Amino acid sequence: MSTPTAPPPPRPSGVREVVGYNWPLYAGGLSAVAGGLALAPHLPRVPAALARTGALAAAALLTGSTAACWWVYDRSELYSLDWLTGLLPDGPGDHLVISTGLDETSHPLALRYPRAAQSVVDLYDPALTTEGSIRRARRRVPPRPGTLPGRPSRLPVASGSQDTVFAVFAAHELRLAPDREALFAEITRTLRPGGTLILVEHLRDRVNTAAFGPGAWHFMPRREWLRLADGAGLRSVTETRIANLVTAFAFSRSAE
Length: 256
Description:
Elements: H1 15-21, H2 23-39, H3 45-75, H4 84-87, E1 95-99, H5 106-112, E2 118-122, H6 132-140, E3 148-149, E4 162-168, H7 177-190, E5 191-202, H8 206-212, H9 222-231, E6 234-242, E7 246-253
Parallel strand pairs: 1-2, 1-4, 2-3, 4-5
Antiparallel strand pairs: 5-7, 6-7
């Protein structure tokens, strides 16, 4: 008699899932396109031109952001973790994965480094992570068994116990600066001397603004992550770009 096996985890989110998580935004954008084009023939010349321009701008934004998501989440090395070798040539060792409602990092890490001890903490709190997309993503990808609940000000992990902490598309979901500051302080507490924080985020920069338009304001600028790391006593070691739209930082705790 064969032993039942657990169902495989869902594949990491690609453009199809991103659209599903954010369907109200896409529905609003498509409505703007359709409404502008439908209304334009019934308007005087100048308002009609404005309606068509608005519709075309909305269409361009939808197309550009969807293409950017496809490039990052379906075509890049983001989920293969090939980019990680340059940041952690010796591997992650004992490591902590932090999520804020959607964890698509711990499983690829466990497959790539099966001998490394891993802990996972989920900071999801409807009062803090208010985005509807996070609720929809969490329903599709529930936390893995053994995931511990945590708060930005309290990670349920012993002090100085981790060689590496991963925060992949997680920290920007904490919309209040004091919560981000508390999280970085806790990350420093959990790291061993010489340990590393791997922070992966879209940045609010020219490239992401061109790709996502106003949606790039959901991201944090590079200076904010450097400020948080410096305030927590973490030193910037190196960084790399993934698909030219995502930045992976490596911050180190002092070895002293």
